[in-house]
Amino acid sequence: TMGGALSYPTEDLTGKTAIVTGSNTGIGYETAKVLASLGCKVVVACRSQERAMAAIDKMQQELPDKTLALAFRPLDLNSLESTKKFASEFLAENDKLHFLVLNAGIAIVPKGVTEDGYERQFQINYLGHFLLSLSLLPALLGTPSARVVFLSSEGHKLGKLDLSNIQGQRQYKPFNFYCHSKLYQILATMKLSRQLPDSELSISCVHPGQVTTDLQRDFTGFWKGYTAMAKAVGAMRDPAQGAATSLFACLSPALQGQKGIYLDSCKVKQPAANARNEESQDKLWNYSLSLLRAYLSDEVTSIAKIDWDVVEAQSGKQNQPRSKEDDGADNVKKGDEDGATGKSGDEMREGTAVGSTEGVEDSGAVQTGSVAESLEAVPEPCPVAGDGEKKTHTEGEPLSNEAEPEQKGEHSGAEKTD
Q1: Which residues are 269's β-sheet partners?
Q2: C-beta of residue 238 within 8 angstroms of C-beta of residue 211
Q3: CB count, 10 Å around CB of 164?
Q4: Which of 111, 151, 167, 278 is the most buried (most CB within 10 A)?
């Protein structure tokens, strides 16, 4: 792997509890398996019970000498109600939570909206996980040295926060909105860290590197060539190495109590300037909370120091979700053609687009860090609209997001559901 094999410390986790979202496959699967192998009770949080149970069985088969404590709990990040229900049921059964690994996500999908009417990459990658992290604060803060880990991406460097187009009100480009969602994760990490300065909670975001999974097989155009080249030169990590940075964030003694941490390849790095901007952190915080008020308890409101008057005053009027009807021809639910893959919405739902995919519109908690992380190298490559060349961004340089890559026909709507 690039830069040699990554490693992380291990310890006996007997008696501890973890939640790993999207842990039925890929990086999440490897993360859950390692935590369970160390004695941790792991909640496999994803949408499909069938796939979760198959993953649990596979983990046990791969570690026949250990008795793993793994349990499936349904979590559909496509639904805020499902997300809230997951948290409420967990809190009813557990007063401690040692590790919350927010791993699930989707990448570069055609335009569509969630059950709640929000753009899919925004909600599944970011907003649902933000709600989950807030809702579980009572257990996290009731646990000494608990840790929250967001799986983000180097792609955040190309993201931007624009509330006037955060739901694709004006335009939608799959790759750009993927990068935006990865930026939102880091902005939320930093803001939550600022809200809880005196707690023992560790809060971090990780970039797992370029990770090879079966998701790349339906890439077309630029991405197909790019990932093939990256594999050929040995610049791709397998999922086990992809999980190393998430595990480092969970297990490194040096990170105990640390907040606002960004990790890349098991090393603390500085995220791009757009992620460190406190004004942006505050804007996203207020906007996000304005969408979640009905789902947050008084206890969470108090713990997270949420001032609803400030939220309502500063969140603006740009918080109305688009309806599925508003999306019209952009919405692939009715079986419209996906221009990127040439497959209809019906075909995508039936799983022909990405192997065993269960669907596009009904996607729930799914694996990130595979398609997601195969798109970014170090330094960050990104196609420039229309020319197929690469540009790189050097940390500290101003980001120019105005010339957003069109990438017409250059991406696949690949995603992996659980």
Answers
A1: 262
A2: yes
A3: 9
A4: 151
Side-chain-side CA neighbours of 396 within 13 Å: the count stands at 1
Least confident of 139-153, 228-242, 280-294, 404-418: 404-418
| Structure-block tokens of residue 281 | 């952190």
* 39 strand-pairing partners: none
> For 214-250, how does the pLDDT look when each residue is reduced to its tens digit (9 = 90+)?
444 444 455 556 556 666 555 566 777 889 999 999 9
Alpha-carbon Rg for the chain in angstroms = 20
Contact 112, 325 (CB under 8 A): no
Distances (CA, A) of 369 to 177, 224, 331: 16, 17, 25
3-state secondary structure of 240: helix
Give the SS3 label for residue 211: strand
Are the C-beta atoms of 39 and 67 separated by less than 8 Å? no
Distances (CA, A) of 128 to 41, 44, 198, 259: 23, 16, 25, 21
* CA pair distance 317, 394, nearest whole angstrom: 35
Q: What rounded mean pLDDT belongs to the chain? A: 78
Long-range contacts of the stretch 120-124 (C-beta < 8 A, 24+): 120/78, 120/363, 121/174, 121/177, 121/178, 121/180, 121/181, 122/166, 122/167, 122/177, 122/180, 122/181, 122/184, 123/77, 123/78, 123/80, 124/77, 124/78, 124/363, 124/364, 124/365, 124/366
Residue 374 has pLDDT above 50, yes or no: no
Tokens 């649990």 correspond to 56
- Tell me how far apart the alpha carbons of residues 417 and 365 are, in angstroms, rounded to a whole number: 7
178 belongs to the catalytic site: yes
d(CA 244, CA 9): 10
Q: Please tell me the distance from the alpha carbon of residue 324 to that of residue 47, in angstroms, as a whole number.
A: 21
Residue reference for tokens 């050097």: 394
Per-residue pLDDT tens digits for 349-358: 222 222 222 2
pTM value? Answer: 0.76
CB atoms within 10 A of CB 310: 13
Tell me how far apart the alpha carbons of residues 255 and 249 are, in angstroms, rounded to a whole number.
Answer: 7
What spatial distance separates the first Cα and last Cα of the chain, rounded to whole Å? 27
Upper half-sphere CA count for residue 259 (Cβ side, 13 Å)? 18
Question: 386 pLDDT exceeds 50?
Answer: no
pLDDT at res. 36: 98
Q: How far is CA 370 from the centre of its chain?
A: 11
Q: Which of 178, 184, 262, 287 is catalytic?
A: 178
